[in-house]
Amino acid sequence: MDAKKAAGEKAAEYISDGMRIGLGTGSTVYWTIVRLGELVKEGLRIEAVPTSVQTEKLAREAGIPLLPLARLQAPLDLTVDGADEVSPKDELIKGGGGALLREKLIASFSDRFIVVVDHSKCVSELGRFPLPVEVVPFGWEMTSKQLRQMGCEPVLRMRDGAPFVTDNGNYVIDCRFGSIPNPGELTVELNKLPGVVENGLFVNMADLIVVGHPNGTVRTKSGT
Ligand code: MLT
């Protein structure tokens, strides 16, 4: 079985009747959404808040009832999402799919945050994957220069010959740091820049990491 499918489907086992959940974005949580769609058809009663327009569409197609964020009065029971890198301390780089801001918001609104990845995402140190940073379009060129001064190689994300625009109307600058020995400090420093809306470092957020392997086995480890 595909490693992403194995991890994604495993996460669905943590979701029970009556839960209100957050649904992440990406190629691994895709399988969680597909599995939840099957379970909903079999009678599982859940409500979900999607982290992107893409996931909203997928959840609708799967028949998963959606919960408007404005109606949320208490934290979500849990959120399931993917990651682009996971460190041994369960710090994450997210945002390869461009939904990092809503993903971080929804994770912060949740009692539990479960991360689903295939084994290739587990690294000894974060930073080989370019860190996505969501920035306001106004003055992005100068924000990019400020990011460079923080020790990375910044590249504006493009799609079809134009800047990639997030669901929030912002740009993404992918920052190649090479290594990020102290994600906790870096996330604070990045978010001090006025042009930065949010960055893809998720520190002290993951409660459980579900790791899929190519032979279809799944290992879990507790996070923070
Ligand atoms: C992301 O964090 O951008 C994605 O969710 C990672 C993925 O594709 O699983």
**What's the architecture of the largest domain, going by CATH?**
3-Layer(aba) Sandwich
Shape: globular
- Helices and strands, in N-to-C order? HEHEHEEEHEEHEEEEHEEEE
Alpha plus pi helix count: 6
Bound molecules: D-malate
Query: Structural class of the secondary structure composition?
Result: alpha/beta
- Beta percentage is 25-35%
CATH topology of the largest domain: Rossmann fold
Which blocks of ≥5 consecutive residues have pLDDT under 50?
none
For the largest sheet, list the strands in their spatial order: 2-1-3-6-14-15
Look at the structure and give the CATH class of the largest domain.
Answer: Alpha Beta
- The total domain count is 2
For this entry, give a set of tags.
single chain; 224 residues; alpha/beta; Rossmann fold; Alpha-Beta Plaits; 2 domains; 6-stranded mixed β-sheet; 4-stranded antiparallel β-sheet; 6 helices; 28% strand; globular; binds D-malate; Ribose5P_isomerase_typA_subgr; Ribose-5-phosphate isomerase A; NagB/RpiA_transferase-like
Plain-language structure description:
With 224 residues, the protein is α/β, with parallel strands linked by helices. It folds into two domains: 3-122 and 203-222, 3-Layer(aba) Sandwich (Rossmann fold), CATH 3.40.50.1360; 131-197, 2-Layer Sandwich (Alpha-Beta Plaits). The protein has helices at 3-12, 29-41, 53-62, 100-108, 140-148, 183-190; strands at residues 20-23, 47-50, 76-81, 85-86, 92-93, 110-118, 131-135, 153-156, 158-159, 162-163, 171-176, 196-199, 201-202, 208-212, 218-222. The strands form four sheets. Strands 2-1-3-6-14-15 form a six-stranded mixed beta sheet. Strands 8-11-7-12 form a four-stranded antiparallel beta sheet, with helices on one face. Strands 4-5-13 form a three-stranded antiparallel beta sheet, covered by helices on one side. The protein starts with a helix and ends with a strand. The model has no long low-confidence stretch (mean pLDDT 97). The structure holds D-malate. D-malate is lined by residues 24-28, 81-84, 94-97, 99. GO terms for molecular function: ribose-5-phosphate isomerase activity. One of its GO terms (cellular component) is cytosol. Pathway: Carbohydrate degradation; pentose phosphate pathway; D-ribose 5-phosphate from D-ribulose 5-phosphate (non-oxidative stage): step 1/1. Keywords: Isomerase.
